[in-house]
Write a structure and sequence with these properties.
13 strands, 261 residues, alpha+beta, homodimer, 28% strand, four-stranded antiparallel sheet
């Protein structure tokens, strides 16, 4: 099946029916994909406040009403409990299970958060003629813990996680401009050039994802990363939290290009 | 006293001491001013969600932790309970009192919301050579109820309130660009040209504020207005809510120019 050319609605149907249970990378070309975090309402204000205070790593695309599974804005009537290929269930900060459907454990006080994903701006970078190394090398993007403190909200805090893409010097300004136009999917870089300044000692050893080649004439460019809010949730060790499994995203009905201003 | 040339810190001190209890318009030239809404934590998630879903009329500048009066981001250690010249106390949607200090009625579950104000972009319009009619005519900006529906969150909903400024045809594009660069203070216009299309029958009869002259060669331009969130709170009739009195704003330490991207 050519999932790349299919519509988000068609692919979401296959996901709901569990005919697709794998990663969504490359599916429904041109459409934005989203990260998931589900928390009980008791923690939802602090988590929304955490995202509001840290919009660069935690750009909120949509938040459900308490108890509601319905996704209205990012898709036409999708279901937060069935329309991700794989979910992770966390209890007190410990991963307890991976499942393909959370209908049976949905609680009336659950609030879902859809958070923007850098997949969206990578499509725009490629469109603009800017190389995206981990895609060229068929790897996951390299991600790093940093010393950049986040603003706390309730039990949520910690440091920012960033993703890194090596960019040729003569394309750095264009890279900043292309990504700055898309603040709902992390926006402009948070740092350019000196990994040590943000607490990264070795860019060949990412904390998450895979290392990629940095060629002569390229400079490492760092963006706020969607792993940040997930990390903050895990570190806070709430009694229950649900996230998507890495790479197993929600495919929205929204074109990447319409996430620009 | 020339309050226009004074620093925000100095003016806030006079406000805290109740030596200033009047409107803040024109004070501390160049610095952003902010709207206030205070709600009990029980309603804070829904209100923050309402703002998140309606960022154009409800641009959140800062939200306090539950129970905290301290303003950290928009000012250096200011106090949400004393640093506005005048507060309005609402019970079940009814205005019950206006006071200059709310220290004595502050509750441990209160959450304050500071919301962006179009004062900030008006300074930028004038700087760009664009006339701002109500300032020229020393009136309050004309504001209107519209038929533009807001996205609901819990008990909060209703239609958008807009402000109107007549703009010469040849400056409309510049006006859009100048204000679009400041999304944290309402950003670009929401409508240009035909008041009837957004449910306004007579632009000489504003629902709030004062009418202003629309000259030949000018077109009415409408922006999302900060009265919107206050209206939503009043219409929801919460047991208790506190807002600033109209025009009696919080003066931040943030320059209008730094609210741009």
């Amino acid at each position: 099946m050519n999932y790349s050319a299919m519509s988000p609605k068609e692919v979401r149907k296959l996901i709901k029916e569990q005919k697709i249970t794998g990663q969504t990378s490359g599916m429904c070309a041109g459409y934005a994909q989203a990260n998931l975090c589900i928390l009980p309402k008791e923690l939802a204000f602090d988590f929304l406040l955490f995202c509001t205070r840290n919009p660069r790593p935690c750009p909120v695309l949509e938040v459900g009403d308490a108890g509601s599974r319905i996704i209205k804005e990012m898709a036409d009537n999708a279901d937060a409990a069935t329309d991700f290929p794989k979910y992770r269930i966390w209890k007190n900060g410990v991963l307890t299970k991976e499942v393909n459907d959370i209908s049976d454990i949905w609680q009336s006080d659950f609030v879902y958060f859809l958070i923007g994903c850098s997949f969206s701006f990578e499509a725009e970078l490629i469109e603009a003629g800017i190389p995206v190394r981990h895609i060229e090398e068929s790897r996951n993007v390299p991600m790093f813990n940093t010393n950049i403190p986040l603003k706390k909200a309730g039990i949520f805090g910690g440091n920012m996680v960033v993703s890194m893409r090596p960019i040729p010097y003569d394309l750095v300004v264009k890279t900043v401009n292309v990504t700055a136009a898309m603040p709902r999917v992390h926006g402009a870089p948070i740092h350019i050039g000196n990994p040590k300044l943000i607490g990264i000692n070795d860019i060949s050893k990412p904390d998450y994802g895979d290392a990629v080649t940095v060629k002569d004439g390229e400079i490492p460019v760092f963006w706020p990363c969607g792993v940040t809010p997930q990390n903050a949730v895990m570190n806070a060790k709430p009694p229950i939290a649900i996230t998507h499994s890495p790479g197993h995203m929600f495919i929205t009905d929204i074109k990447n290009s319409s996430l620009k201003y």
